[in-house]
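New here. Invent one.

***
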Amino acid sequence: MKVLLSGATGFIGRYLLDELLKNDHKIYAIVRKFNLSLDSRVEQINLSSLNTLDETFDVFINLAGENIASKPWSEKRKTALYESRIGLTDQIRRNLMNPPKRVISMSAVGYYGVAREGVFNENTLHKAGFAHELCDAWEKTAMLFPDPQAVVIFRLGVVLGVGGALDKMRLPFKLGLGGPLTDGKQWFSWIHINDVINAIVSAMADKSYEGVYNLVAPEFIDQKTFAKYYAKSLNRSAILPTPRWVLNLIFGEMATLLTEGPKITPSRLQEKNFEFEYKDLKAALFDIEEKHQLR
């Protein structure tokens, strides 16, 4: 396949490239400037040059987007998050000479907003808030490609692998500071990186994929249980909770992502009998730590 990829140097992008290159796909990566870290088999192209590329891509995989949880949500930060998702997706659509045959675009379970009560599947009504507004606008922009029935959107939970979110958590947990956040009863929707890659590859090959899918593991886990399992994978304990007021002081409005996670179910993937490689959080975390040690 001819594959156009945004976010190729990001956490998910690096894993996905490894998988795609094994299968001899022709990869075009959208980059700001030439990146020496990318495999030489990947053709690098900047955004402004897309309209000179007379190619019809079999699939455009849209992974770009700044980390929503890396900095507090100032107005400047909100604008940057919006532009890195909605703005970039729209620019790519407008700059392509020929529309892709298929679009696979990311979103997040932040779409559902702030809630602890109830179970959210792909058709559940959302709660209001910035995270929902950002994800909703991103999804609607992806749906503007000429054939909306050829668009697949994955609403990601916290993606666990060597790198990404776990790398940011690793040091505090190693120091014994990785206890539950507030009471730890908020839901923690997670997905192993292997299952993210498998879902994307499945949607590339299987044209029956269409619309929105929650890309989270089917196991319901609260944040306190996640903290306990992750600490155990590092041979540490997770006892001391982080008070809500501390998170509010540090993160402001963004603290709700950490303290009020909704309970998400991957209903549509289960209906398609998608085979999750990692359904169990404890097994997923021990697998990742083993790989981290081999790095």
The chain has one domain: 2-294.
